[in-house]
Design brief:
- The chain folds into two domains: 229 residues, Rossmann fold (3-Layer(aba) Sandwich); 56 residues, no CATH class.
- Helices cover 31% and strands 24% of the residues.
- Strands 1, 2, 4, 6, 7, 8, 9, 10, 11, 12, 13 and 14 form a twelve-stranded mixed β-sheet that branches. A two-stranded antiparallel sheet has the order 3-5. The chain has a two-stranded antiparallel ribbon with strand order 15-16.
- α1 packs antiparallel against α2, α2 packs across α3 and α2 packs across α9.
- The longest helix has 21 residues.
């Protein structure tokens, strides 16, 4: 017998718009295939937060030079590369620039780039963590997979204490500027809700890129829709768009004015003035027209536990070894064994062998692809 879709709806009035939080009741997920599209993956979710055209003015926008933040504290937002202590600001600026350089010159299919990207994310996350050490002490981490997991682990949280979610930004089927957030629970919904209810009202979310801030706002509204007590919500990012931080500042204040008594803090390593437009709007963009932080999920995929990976397989197969021998007959592949776990270390080893044999154009990620 087919189960009839049932859902609850909560409405929030923000920026003169009706923001809707839809959550399934029962086992059948909410199917939004007739309303939204995404780059990849299913379009069935446990929770859908519909923002409508809340972000439409941000698509393709650039903050004018005279209006760009140049201070450390901007409302609820702190920008680490504007920190007054140059011993903090200097390394943050350098690390942010290095991440942008990796994204613009390399690929997540190159494990050497993956390793460098992951190392910089860890280093910058540790800086962010020191800044908010007291604020997030005892907080419950709400992790948006994939990219949020390595950052949250860098904050020294135990996986058993995390609330794991798959969060996907959705664009309107007919209007890409219409935005929604789809959430799928990772694990048992009842256990997730118990973990949230038992929390002390303090929550932290970490994600490499904060573009619109829709993930952070969506999670916050989802908590409120479930009557979860929120005393403090801290959002950490490696790179953020000023437009997204401004919206978060404004909507957090509106929620407080409406009676939600909580503090909301965003802390970002770097700040960017431009967002993309077109078919793929709302990504942080550099002056050269490229992505500033890239797809953190893809760049950090190899560092995830195998069950959370989208790009890299769990184990080395004979087919992988045969492909390596075909691509590079000169390579010494004796250390690459069928059945071994796919790890950053052995993928780096393989890329180094290819590079040493003048096969730099062969990227390991093109050979080691997770089967759909």
């Amino acid at each position: 017998m087919t189960e009839t879709l049932r859902e609850t709806q909560s409405h929030f009035s923000l920026q003169k718009r009706d923001i809707i939080v839809r959550e399934r009741i029962g086992e059948k997920r909410i199917d939004v295939a007739n309303e939204y599209r995404t780059s990849a993956g299913p379009l069935e979710f446990d929770v859908v937060i519909e923002f409508g055209d809340l972000y439409k003015d941000m698509a393709g926008s650039t903050i004018p030079v005279g209006k760009r933040w140049t201070t450390f504290q901007n409302g609820d937002a702190r920008i680490m590369f504007h920190h007054s202590n140059e011993d903090i600001a200097g390394p943050v600026k350098k690390g942010s620039e290095q991440i942008t350089d990796i994204v613009q010159t390399s690929s997540y299919q190159n494990p050497l780039a993956v390793g460098a990207y992951g190392k910089l994310v860890n280093e910058l996350t540790e800086v962010l963590g020191r800044e908010v050490k007291e604020e997030i002490k005892g907080a419950t981490p709400i992790v948006a997979l994939r990219a949020g997991l390595p950052m949250t682990e860098a904050l020294a949280y135990n996986k058993k204490d995390m609330v794991l979610l798959e969060a996907k930004r959705l664009n309107g089927l007919n209007d890409p500027n219409k935005l929604a957030l789809g959430i799928r629970f990772v694990g048992n919904k009842e256990e997730i809700m118990k973990k949230l209810e038992k929390a002390n009202g303090k929550f932290v979310n970490a994600d490499p890129a904060l573009a619109t801030g829709s993930t952070q706002l969506g999670i916050l509204l989802w908590l409120f829709s479930n009557k979860i007590v929120v005393k403090n919500f801290t959002a950490l990012s490696i790179g953020a768009a000023q437009q997204g931080l401004e919206i978060l500042n404004a909507t957090a204040q509106e929620l407080r004015d409406q009676g939600h008594q909580f503090s909301f803090n965003t802390v970002s390593a770097g700040l960017h003035p431009t967002l993309t437009a077109g078919e793929h709007p709302y990504y942080i963009q550099t002056a050269k027209g490229k992505y500033a932080v890239g797809d953190g999920g893809d760049f950090l995929d190899l560092l995830l536990p195998p069950e959370f990976r989208k790009r890299w397989p769990e184990r080395i197969t004979q087919a992988h070894i045969d492909a390596l021998k075909e691509k590079c007959i000169e390579g010494n592949w004796e250390s690459i064994k069928e059945g071994d776990d796919v790890t950053l270390a052995n993928m780096v080893e393989i890329q180094q062998i290819l590079n040493a044999n003048n096969k730099k154009d062969v990227l390991v990620g093109n050979i080691f692809k997770k089967e759909e």
